[in-house]
Batch of 3 targets.
Target 1
Amino acid sequence: MSAKILAVDTATENCSVALVMGDQVFARSEEAPRDHTKKILPMVDEVLKEANVALTDIDAIAFGQGPGSFTGVRIGIGIAQGLAFGADLPMIGVSTLAAMAQGSYRKFGETHVATAIDARMSEVYWARYSREQDGRWTAVDAECVTPPSELAAQLEADSETWAKVGTGWEAYAEHMDTLAINTKACEVLFPEAQDMAFLAQFAYAEGKAVAAEESEPVYLRDKVTWKKLPGRE
């Protein structure tokens, strides 16, 4: 995979930008929950200057499509669309949950990951992923937003040990610690743009980049029940 992908993400408390060109990664990341709009564009300028490329040299712009903070997701897609329109570039939306799974592999080599972001309102954004040999991630559970108590009541044990990533584990530990699956700690709390850029390479290679005006966020608020994917019973 050799596409030049610029990724931006503001869907959670973390704010990040990354440019991936072949084996080169130029990245910025900072936990700044109230300063996304101030920090994201300067980060874009920094990585482009560090890589010595112009925005028009990029093949596509990836963005954190959610789930996450409503405001944060809107900021991210708005910035990405502005950049894409200005440079006539296609866009690729990347799941924040899948990006955290990739981050856990990049940092700690984890291949079975249970992601849970604090969704407020006593709910978590939830999904589990298993890594394939080619670097793709297969969703074991469909992404959803659900009360941790309902997740604990429905989730069944399996033979894997799942790395716990995201803010939801600590925020709702009373219920999350009672899940039937085997888990282990993993120090990944937020998604990062460099992992989104990596995952976007697959979508770009498969021709799944879309025009800026067709890019859409993912909120999940209308999906309130945890659901196992077909064929994963």
Target 2
Amino acid sequence: MSRPHFDPAAYPAQLADKTARLRDLLAPFDAPEPEVFDSPREHYRLRAEFRLWRESGSEKRDYAMFEPGDKFTPVLIDNFPIASRRINELMPRLKAGWQASAALSFKLFQVEFLTTLAGDALITLAYHRPLDAAWQADAERLAAELDVSLVGRSRGQRIVIGRDYVEEELEVAGRRFRYRQPEGAFTQPNGAVCQKMLGWAYEVLGERSDDLLELYCGNGNFTLPLATRVRKVLATEISKTSVNAALANLADNGVENVTLVRLSAEELTEALNEVRPFRRLAGIDLKSYAFGSVFVDPPRAGMDPDTCELTRRFERILYISCNPETLAQNIAQLHDTHRVVRCALFDQFPYTHHMESGVLLERR
């Protein structure tokens, strides 16, 4: 993990620069002024990954990060102010735990923390050697001492102590939604901003009497609150881990108007265009849906041209993006039929150039 340059005093100017950048990218499309949702200045990041550094001739291991572009000069750290308070509380206790155990420290090379606003925590320890019974016994004692779930990973091995997910709670429009967030799967790193992002999407979609198509639904992060705004939802996701988490989240929250299928956005485009049938859509009558809106939250590459063309069919396109450049490219493809009526900046990644943004496009 690269080391960010943490400087709370510079944060307002950095956020202003990001706002200007988004404004400039969306200016060709006559977009309104971006709504800006800032981040806590510190302790905002709910997950963190550290390499461990061992000096030659020493058995002591330290948390290490690296400057961007330099993988050979470690910056040794004892705390990480952008990470959640729970991660900072766990860091020295975990370090003391592995230093006190030869079974835990031997060939340990990486540590990952996953925490939640609700206070849950999971730690993953990665090794360059097989994990044995001695490792498991010491790992179970440490997990109980730290009150965390713990996952041990090595080539061909994955040992879970406790659960392989954390539990989160996020509030949207006065309702609390519970989420399982699996180890190794994508989750939004900035919980406070994620909550603002969900609230914005909920508001701009509005109360609707028709149906919603959701592409790239992940673990159901947006699916849960948006499903309460429409008649029913058809949601797609390709990752099996995320699909399983989304199904559990729908059940845990009593959301019953969502049908989830494990298809990529490209495959669903082919299905809706009747290019070819898919066994995973057996029993789902696509023609029974009265889609009025589509929600997309694609990877950094944005939507491929065919999927982007598919979204043109809908009256409303609600688009969350982690890459404003590919967002602008997709809007350019849609600009002749849809106009930007709302846009927002969500500062998920303070002290970096990255930003999350959202737009609502409506048919002209």
Target 3
Amino acid sequence: MTKFTEPAKELVQHIGGKENIAAVTHCATRMRFVLNDPSKADVKKIESIKLVKGTFTQAGQFQVIIGNEVASFYQEFIKIAGVSETSKEEAKVAAKQNMNWLQRMIAHLADIFTPLIPALVVGGLILGFRNVIGDIKLLEDGTKSIIEVSQFWAGVHSFLWLIGEAVFHFLPVGITWSIARKMGASPILGIVLGITLVSPQLLNAYGVAGAEEIPVWDFGFAKVEMIGYQAQVIPAILAGFLLAYLETRLRKIVPNSISMIVVPFFALIPTVLIAHTVLGPIGWTVGSWISDIVYSSLTSAFGWLFAAIFGFAYAPLVITGLHHMTNAIDLQLMSEFGGTNLWPMIALSNIAQGSAVVAMIYLNRKNEEEKQVSIPAAISCYLGVTEPAMFGINLKYGFPFLAAMIGSMTAAVVSVGSNVMANSIGVGGLPGILSIQAQHMIMFAVAMLVAIVVPFLLTIVFAKTGMNKFSFKK
């Protein structure tokens, strides 16, 4: 018997018994259940279990926050429950039974972009570092940048673009690969499709606006413009889904004896042709509309209002899972405008949630048991992972969550009002400043200070003035 035995037995009982478990897996801090009947889970009793730090439902999965000991708890749980281990992919498939069409679409978007985040984080940091050494006049009384004075740093600046270009200009390759992998198509065909969208044979997407003449493929009866889709998101998504659709459907009707030859040929060639004649131009237009609307909204005279709404609403979006849709918008903004003014607000929302938890740590400083939840949650939040803080502390009490939303809103207005732009997405919380374009780092630091101070003070004020009776939970 271990310290996890009794809590595991309680969780099996309150989750509705092993018969109610369709699938179960875990991540870094949470147990993830797909339940046959979610209504059988007794949330109050589950949250009363000593090791449990909170619960929530997202993407069709009932998630129980355990903390850093989740891996050991999980092993004890599946042994007691008598259920087999489930991979994350299997759990996601099973979870579809509890989702509506909108939730399924959001889950698909999340599954597409999540594998790309490590590369996007690295790319954003590289672009930020290149801006610091290449664009800011730091030396000789503010007249020269570092690369203008040092040949070594000039070489570093040039070399790092090799990686930056691979991440962002060739982003469609990653997107089409990820879609093919997720939808059960051949990942290598996804890679080939992506390369056809960014081939050096094509006119670079960044050069289209200034091109005197666009080259074409001349088929006699028709001409197709040879335009590349470097850094374009929506054309790659549309092409990737078409490839996956054609390949998976062809596999069902083509005999196995000739499948290896026929399926790749009749899936890839039509997809590439349609991508360059129909999907690419449509995707480019739609992507431009979306990025123009978002950018214009944030930079208009009413940008502060848009920022206030987004800053206030982002944390609730995380609860629903709708926040995954912002990844595509961020990447489209980067493609169109060389940066994103949306991502800084997301990083600030992370910080605000963490600051509300810090206030709760101060208010409950004599509660040693809660510190075991709140301190790791605050640290995690400041590093960009908000779920433990939101579900373990802020939503549990209610008023800290509201304080964090107001703090996020205020910081977002400061950020957008100062025209802060990030190079890339992926680095959240306090490290988010590393993603900010060098010329905006000072104002982003001011916005960060707002996101730290306002939620902290509001949480304490709410606690002292009776708002502690307010709760988001029934």
